[in-house]
Amino acid sequence: MDFEKPCCPIVEVDGNIACGKQFDLDITLPCDNRNVIYGVIRDCYKEPVCDAVVKLVEVVCECGKEERRPVSHTFTDKEGEIILKKYSPIGELTEFASNYAETISKTTGHIACITDKDTVIAVSGGSKKDFLEKNLSKELEEVIENKEVFKSKENNEIAIPITQNEGRERIYNSQVIYPIISDGDVIGSVILLAKDQSKKMGEVEDKIAQSAAGFLGNHLGV
User: Fold this and answer.
1) CA–CA separation, 66 vs 69, rounded Å?
2) Tens digits of per-residue pLDDT, 28-86?
3) Model confidence at 87: pLDDT above 80
4) Contacts 24+ apart (CB under 8 A), 214-220
5) Is the distance from CB of 94 to CB of 121 less than 8 angstroms?
6) pLDDT band with cut points at 50, 70 and 90 for residue 91
7) Separation CA 3–CA 142 (nearest Å)
8) C-alpha dist (Å) from residue 185 to 5, 125, 163, 218
């Protein structure tokens, strides 16, 4: 069975890219919801170009003025390959976030998740297969983007799905979600979850989630 391959832009440069020589190429990619962009840079002889600087920028139009904002950058490896990921301040602290999530989970006895604005970067007390590096649900993205604090209520059949794989049915008995804010910008969230109906979340869990979000935000703002 034949599958239609996605359209990938190919840009040809007339001439050999010599060491130290610079070519400024502007490649416009179609709208894409992926968090990772992969590509290969080769010269006119189809040889891979090593140590080329590749920048990913976002074109934003405000008040009739076009502005280019850097999103990420990287260098090609010896095979000319690049992998660009959306920059995530909290994503730079994955190991620290993992240890912190473990501490929160052990303290509260609940599932603890730490996210950036796109994915779950740390989880403890729950299945890593269900959460870790999974894309966030649109509902959770909206809560984070609006800098909202969400606390589930008893007898409420609606819960905020954490990942895109979850539905709107209530699979968590209790939830607490606090946005992580650094220098006024939201960069992620701290989440406590409980599936067991015998486990309730109260003021203690609320304060722990709030303190964790505040600590992470302040830590990244230093």
Assistant:
1) 10
2) 666 655 556 677 888 778 888 888 787 777 777 877 788 877 766 778 888 878 766 66
3) no
4) 216/90, 216/93, 216/97, 216/100, 216/114, 216/180, 216/182, 216/188, 216/190, 217/180, 217/181, 217/182, 217/187, 218/182, 219/93, 220/89, 220/90, 220/93, 220/180, 220/182, 220/187
5) yes
6) low
7) 34
8) 38, 28, 22, 11
